[in-house]
Write a structure and sequence with these properties.
This protein is of the alpha/beta class. It has 11 helices and 8 strands. It binds acetoacetyl-coenzyme A. Acetoacetyl-coenzyme A binds next to helix 2 and helix 9.
Length: 280
């Protein structure tokens, strides 16, 4: 694989594009919103400068990395990519439509990988005519820092696709871990009930957010407590994933805390909106 198309230039898409370009791949970054695409250049540049300042990257390499990324609002840019990694808005109908469009544009041999955090890979693959070459490649935020890629096999994903994506993740400097396609995979099936329970603890007055987070930082050596992490991920994203878990398993243990629903309805979405459990 030499050429990687990344669809969606938000936080995750930019991070994936940056890491792919840093590890030598030619990257095509596509977003249908021109404003988002414009911001992506600055976002990637700031992250690269930060890594250069820390000495993780040579300052002289920054320019060459950025030049390996070409950007467009036209899906046609992904036409010749060996693999397409999709990181668009976490909504099943938006993702299905995106994959249908790409299926008509990209070469038959191209692998399709979705960065969904919980939507069924098997279900998304059914929007295309290539379910054997369709797979989940779940990166973690901040992508330049977090080592994991959760590789999720759909029901019809071939061994060859899984092997190619595992090799790619390794070349991108990440550690791939293979899991099967059930709601939330492993990461969010385990993480979201923890975050939800922490929110229940606030809701029931067990402790303040600061106290709950300190318990996890000092007692369990988590880099961020669960409520700081929820703000970092986005409370709307957490709610969305919990709903996928609740619906997918039909089990009330995943029911989102009413406080989480209320905060999302009030527009308190965490860091990105300036307020969540904390003010930013
Ligand atoms: N680009 C480049 N470098 C970055 C960066 C970025 N966007 N963000 C952080 N860094 C680097 C910093 O330069 C710094 O480098 P050094 O260690 O060499 O100094 C390092 O990361 C730590 O950053 P900071 O000093 O600014 O802050 P910190 O020590 O508080 O760490 C953190 C920040 C890395 C985010 C850390 O708090 C952490 O690991 N938090 C947990 C993050 C996590 O759990 N992410 C997964 C979320 S779940 C998800 O993404 C998937 C999902 O489906 C919901």
């Amino acid at each position: 694989m030499q050429s990687i198309a990344v669809i969606g230039a938000g936080t995750m898409g930019c991070g994936i594009a940056q890491v792919a370009a840093t590890t030598g791949f030619s990257v095509k970054l596509v977003d249908v919103a021109p404003g988002v695409l414009e911001k992506s250049g600055q976002r990637i540049s700031e992250s690269l400068q930060r890594l250069a300042k820390k000495g993780v990257l040579e300052t002289s390499a920054v320019d060459a990395i950025q030049k390996r990324i070409s950007a467009s609002t036209d899906f046609g840019l992904a036409r010749d990519a060996d693999i397409v990694i999709e990181a668009v808005f976490e909504d099943e109908s938006v993702k299905r439509q995106t994959w249908q469009n790409l299926d008509a544009i990209c070469g038959d041999k191209a692998i399709f990988a979705t960065n969904t955090s919980s939507i069924s890979i098997t279900q998304l693959a059914s929007a295309t005519k290539r379910p054997e070459r369709f797979i989940g490649m779940h990166f973690f935020n901040p992508v330049p820092v977090m080592k994991l890629v959760e590789v999720i096999r759909g029901n019809r994903t071939s061994d060859a696709t899984c092997a190619s994506v595992t090799e790619l993740a390794t070349k991108m400097g990440k550690t791939p871990i293979e899991v099967n396609d059930y709601p939330g995979f492993v990461s969010n099936r385990v993480l979201m009930p923890l975050i939800n329970e922490a929110i229940f603890a606030v809701y029931e007055g067990v402790a303040k957010p600061e106290a709950i987070d300190e318990v996890f930082k000092l007692g369990m050596a988590h880099p961020m407590g669960p409520l700081t992490l929820a703000d970092f991920i986005g409370l709307d994203v957490c709610l969305n994933i919990l709903e996928v878990l609740q619906k997918g398993f039909g089990d009330p243990k995943y029911r989102p805390c009413p406080l989480l629903r209320q905060m999302v309805a009030a527009g308190k979405l965490g860091r990105k909106s300036g307020q969540g459990f904390y003010k930013y």
